[in-house]
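Example record

Each entry pairs one chain with its bound ligand, glutamine.
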Amino acid sequence: MLTIGILGLQGAVAEHMKQIQGAGLNAVVIKKAEQLKEIAGLIIPGGESTAIKKLMDQYGFIEPIKQFSEEKKPIFGTCAGMVLVAKQLSDSEDAHLNLMDISVKRNAFGRQRDSFEIPLDVKGLPEPFPAVFIRAPYAEKAGSDVEVLASLNDKIVAARQNHILVSAFHPELTNDGRFIELFIEMVRDANKNPIS
Ligand code: GLN
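Structure tokens for the complex follow.
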């Protein structure tokens, strides 16, 4: 059975565990970089991207996650996770993991709209998805290799580039498993044995 890891340094870890297990896969909390070897896909959860980045530095996660990505193993960044995988941040000189060709603005929806839920059209889902936004980022720009999966007021809030998936919202905070299923499909595809 495939195992998906959730980076367990800070943020919404338990909710992702539940959704992955609910979909019938194994879920493990990743606390040490060595554990990356045991998993087929990695979720970088929402939380506070600056705090998660600090802890990733402290626990030596940056290079091992880059290596994981080099091996084309699927990575899903939600909210703070989307900030962490971006190649460019609009409010800071250095990006974090530098994995996906998007330029991300943090806390982008402004104060009065700190948190909200909205039915969102997502490419590949026939019915709108109940998207929960909490001090969410959006992507202002995306490279030509990036497939935009959802936009809100013309801002990119879900996207995919090869083996990397991001959402500015929190699919783990709803009972709707369709968005995480998109990621699980990516993990399954990456693990199909090539027919020789
Ligand atoms: N505002 C947070 C950040 O920029 C993200 C919030 C979230 O993950 N819900 O890190």
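The pocket of glutamine is lined by residues 46-49, 79-80, 83, 106-107, 134-135, 137 (CB under 6 Å).
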